[in-house]
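Entry for the shared binder. Reason: the reviewer on the internal report wants the predicted structure included alongside the sequence.
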Amino acid sequence: MTTPIEALDDAAVGALLARVRRVALLGVSDRFNRPSFRLGAYLLDRTAWTVDLVNPHVVETLGRLCAPTLADVPAPDLVVVCRAPGVWDAVIDEVAAAGGGAVWLPGDVADADTAARALARARAAGLAAVADRDLRAEHKRWCA
């Protein structure tokens, strides 16, 4: 069993979101019924952030072109991950290589051990990391 690591407290999450200017939404879908599509719509419509959409299998969604990889967009302050837990290690490595500052992992899709390993990997790579928090709710709480 993985040793739990300390999650960011509320103040740290608020401080992280206050610093964000550019977000990359990694794994955004072009299907309106997918959570990543709805999250992308929220980020584009309700935040002041510059939002880059990233998915190698989607050309365009939400009226915007998608970049195939994080390396194809300017370094984001925050990468919001909409990918399956099985690829989180590779995603975290990609975020670090692209010069991302923080990674936000989805809640309720991975067991506690998987999330803890991903958070530890992100922090070891020098990234701030958040998991199991709703980005929309946190944005409304800290930035609205």
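Summary line for the report: The helical segments are 10-19, 35-46, 88-97, 112-124, 135-143.
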